[in-house]
Amino acid sequence: MSYEDFKILSKNFRKAFGQMLRATDMDEALRLTKRFISTIDKEPIIKDFIEKNHTRVYDFNKIIEEKNGEDKFDLPFDENEEVSYIYQLLKHITENNLSYYDFAFPYREGRKIVNMIKNFNREVVNLLVDHITSYLEEKAIKMGIEGKQNAKYVFNNSSVGNFLSNEGDVYGDTTLNQTNNNHEGEGIQSIAKELIQLLKDTKIDNAELKEDAIDHVEEIAKKVENGEEVKPSLIRRATTALTNVTGLAGAGTALATTIPQFIEAVQAIPMP
Amino acid sequence: MLVEKRIEITKQTDHDGFSSFECSLCSEGFKLVPGDVEEDHVLQIFCPSCGIPQDPLEFLTEDVIHNINAETEQHAIDLLNQFSIDLDKIFKGNKNVTVKKGKPLKPSISPQPLFEQNDYDIVEFQCCLKKAKVSTLIKASAGPYCPYCGVN
Fold first, then answer.
1. pLDDT in tens, B96-141
2. Between chains, do A176 and B38 touch, taking CB under 8 Å as contact?
3. Is the predicted ipTM greater than 0.90, yes or no?
4. Residue B115 distance to chain A (closest CA, Å)
């Protein structure tokens, strides 16, 4: 088997499980479970792994019948047995066209069927997937086809005073979006300037806290501008004051989003 | 009548332009460039650690989920409190129906400030020429899976 073939095998297997996780109704879930089992059975390397781990035959007719309706499957402690147990369970389900209701009911969460399917696959089938993917990785190493590095590590050379930023937002209700606000070349000075203005413009109930925060930010900006050492005690005082201001400013405000940027930049200042 | 309400949760990227994601299967955290995830052809993301593909929404981080729950609860409570006020106005002066208002409801959780830590190391996947940030744990593994094509 070539390096490429092995990578495709591993990917197809993981994709088959990924599809199972996305099933939204019971017919689709059963169809995708059949495909998943077929992916295992038609692939000699994976099938060999299953056979090596075969410890004993489980009577799932009896196990499901005797199982209390609210009980989850009692998975074996031993890893080999766990592989064999889950594989035989999935075989039994697919060969007998069982409805997910018949065996996955204890895995439900709320009224949605999709959650029952997903939870069963996450809590049970995922264990088998984990064993198989680990085996495939080990097998690749033993076969000597591991080593061609796909991921190359990039050294992060951003530094305070000259960090390039490409800021965006993640919107997390039903979509993921990004808005690019390119502030290339923006440094600690400009963040500090923006932050001081925001602090001055924002109405904060605790006047002393606001005053302290402005003073600390100004002092840090001045020291950075003059190339002087910014003492850790000053960073700590500034961080505490700004964190407290964040709590009063309210989430989502410009002030609440600029403060973490400043804190992060300040904490990254190299110590002498 | 069902009225749809869109609640936006925003979180800025870190200084390198990456946002945090967390696999709901293996709980491993990693970072991607939001613009890459939003490309039309990206329908699923492969976790760099376990390699299982899932819908991008399955990778929301705990802090974002917390704020989604907090904002949703706040909105529901606002509606209920407003309903109580409206009910009081409707039956004001009515001899047959008396409305006794209780204390306004308060949410059980509040939104937290969202910000990215500058952590993890940048890796570039040669297969798709896309970048990601991964933890030391993922780095130490046999090789992270590309979040976009699933190859390692």
1. 888 888 888 998 988 888 888 878 889 999 889 999 999 888 877 7
2. yes
3. no
4. 6
